[in-house]
């Protein structure tokens, strides 16, 4: 029904109408809905609107509750639509309000007749190929043969459950503060031990909340999806990974479980060196490079026989300078690249196989910085030197390479 023009006159506010020919789109799909929604919100921003009001009424609420019930929704779905809500997928500040949510359709029609208003109904509302319309024209009338006041009963139940949901949400908020270790771009980290100490109902709620944080537009998350996530956290697979839904995945890491979006790495910030540059970087000697994620690689000359050589850790390497092609290059791995890990007597190995042997997480491999001498890998930082560039008994001049993590 079109009631905005009358409401604007009654409230002494401005009116700006929009007309859409849905048949021009061929069908009313989710894509069409998003296009129309975004256009309306942009108009609201330009007008400086305090809210966007939609005309959902009590009958719509009953249909929504029934839809969620038939799809196996949890408590959140059975509470129906909210009277006022800021939905970040729409806008950070402008709330979506439903002022007619407590008014029945027949009451609105009676009001229109009393005030000489002529409502307009979308012809597609009678098309029973749409699920909601089948509920409206077929299921609800059938349910009314069992309970003539079934609509009022369902509407009242939604109100009661909404109140219960508020109480539960407070418990969820407390649990979230205990369990959520980190919330960042494309990632949510959960403390696994704290998570497993919670009742199963709160566990499910926290999985839903984590998913909603990364995908605000994700709707109707099914029970099976949430349950798979809860089971994985309780009993992770051998791979430590689970593709959950809609590009979201769970990854175990120590005492944490990470929910990641898309290609987000399970390792955050400067925890490990990562090379964001696709092109190779030149490392002069002496000289230094700073990686974007807070690591520094320094190259200096060193005398052979130095006592420091014996104390080199995993982020340090001494190379026979006379065997190297300078300047050195720091680059990502190329497909099929091989090197000769020190300790294998000069035998070569695919880097991809080496990663598997040392169990470097798959998400870290593509951007792991490698030090090249010409076209050959001279050092895999943090793991292994290359046999060809090792320090020999007769080595006279050494190159000292050192990765350090810069202070935050």
TrEMBL record:
One Gene Ontology cellular component annotation held by this UniProt entry: cytoplasm
Give the matching InterPro entries: Lysidine-tRNA-synth_C, Rossmann-like_a/b/a_fold, TilS/TtcA_N, tRNA_Ile_lys_synt, tRNA_Ile_lys_synt_N
Q: Which UniProt keywords apply?
A: ATP-binding, Cytoplasm, Ligase, Nucleotide-binding, tRNA processing
Q: Residue limits of the Lysidine-tRNA(Ile) synthetase C-terminal domain?
A: 328-401
Which branch of life, at top level?
Bacteria
Set out the biological process GO terms recorded for this chain's protein.
tRNA processing
What SUPFAM superfamilies does this protein's entry cite?
Answer: Adenine nucleotide alpha hydrolases-like, MesJ substrate recognition domain-like, PheT/TilS domain
User: Record's Pfam families?
Assistant: ATP_bind_3, TilS_C
Extract the GO molecular function terms from the UniProt entry: ATP binding; tRNA(Ile)-lysidine synthase activity
Q: Where in the cell is it found?
A: Cytoplasm
Query: Per the UniProt record, which EC number(s) apply here?
Result: 6.3.4.19
Task: Show the catalytic activity.
Answer: cytidine(34) in tRNA(Ile2) + L-lysine + ATP = lysidine(34) in tRNA(Ile2) + AMP + diphosphate + H(+)
Query: Which NCBIfam families does UniProt cross-reference here?
Result: lysidine_TilS_C (TIGR02433), lysidine_TilS_N (TIGR02432)
Which protein is depicted? tRNA(Ile)-lysidine synthetase
Question: What is the scientific name of the source organism?
Answer: Anaerolinea thermolimosa
Lineage start: Bacteria, Bacillati, Chloroflexota, Anaerolineae, Anaerolineales
């Amino acid at each position: 029904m079109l009631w905005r023009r009358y409401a604007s006159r009654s409230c002494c506010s401005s009116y700006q109408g929009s007309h859409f020919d849905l048949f021009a789109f061929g069908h009313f799909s989710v894509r069409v809905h998003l296009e129309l929604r975004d256009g309306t919100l942009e108009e609201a921003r330009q007008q400086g609107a305090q809210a966007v009001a939609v005309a959902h009424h009590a009958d719509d609420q009953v249909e929504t509750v029934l839809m969620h019930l038939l799809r196996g929704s949890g408590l959140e779905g059975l509470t129906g639509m909210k009277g006022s809500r800021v939905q970040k997928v729409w806008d950070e500040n402008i709330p979506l309000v439903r002022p007619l949510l407590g008014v029945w359709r027949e009451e609105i029609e009676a009001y229109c007749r009393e005030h000489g208003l002529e409502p307009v109904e979308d012809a597609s509302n009678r098309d029973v190929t749409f699920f909601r319309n089948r509920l409206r024209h077929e299921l609800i009338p059938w349910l009314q043969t069992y309970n003539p006041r079934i609509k009022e009963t369902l509407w009242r139940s939604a109100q009661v459950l909404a109140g219960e949901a508020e109480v539960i949400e407070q418990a969820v908020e407390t649990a979230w503060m205990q369990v959520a270790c980190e919330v960042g771009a494309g990632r949510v980290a959960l403390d696994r031990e704290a998570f497993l100490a919670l009742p199963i109902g709160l566990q499910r709620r926290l999985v839903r909340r984590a998913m909603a944080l990364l995908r605000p537009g994700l709707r109707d998350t099914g029970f099976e999806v949430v349950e798979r996530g809860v089971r994985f956290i309780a009993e992770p697979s051998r791979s430590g990974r689970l593709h959950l839904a809609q590009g979201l995945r769970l990854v175990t890491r120590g005492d944490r479980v990470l929910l990641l979006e898309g290609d987000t790495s399970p390792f955050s910030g400067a925890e490990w060196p990562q090379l964001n540059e696709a092109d190779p970087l030149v490392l002069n000697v002496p000289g230094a490079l700073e990686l974007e994620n807070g690591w520094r690689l320094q190259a200096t000359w060193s005398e052979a026989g130095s006592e420091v050589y014996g104390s080199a850790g995993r982020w340090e390497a001494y190379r026979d300078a006379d065997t190297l092609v300078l300047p050195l290059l720091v680059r990502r791995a190329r497909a099929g690249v091989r090197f000769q890990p020190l300790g294998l007597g000069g035998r070569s190995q695919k880097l991809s196989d080496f990663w598997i042997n040392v169990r470097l997480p798959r998400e870290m491999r593509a951007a792991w910085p490698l030090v090249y001498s010409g076209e050959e890998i001279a050092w895999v930082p943090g793991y292994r030197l290359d046999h060809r560039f090792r320090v020999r008994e007769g080595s006279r001049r050494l190159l000292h390479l050192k990765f350090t993590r810069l202070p935050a």
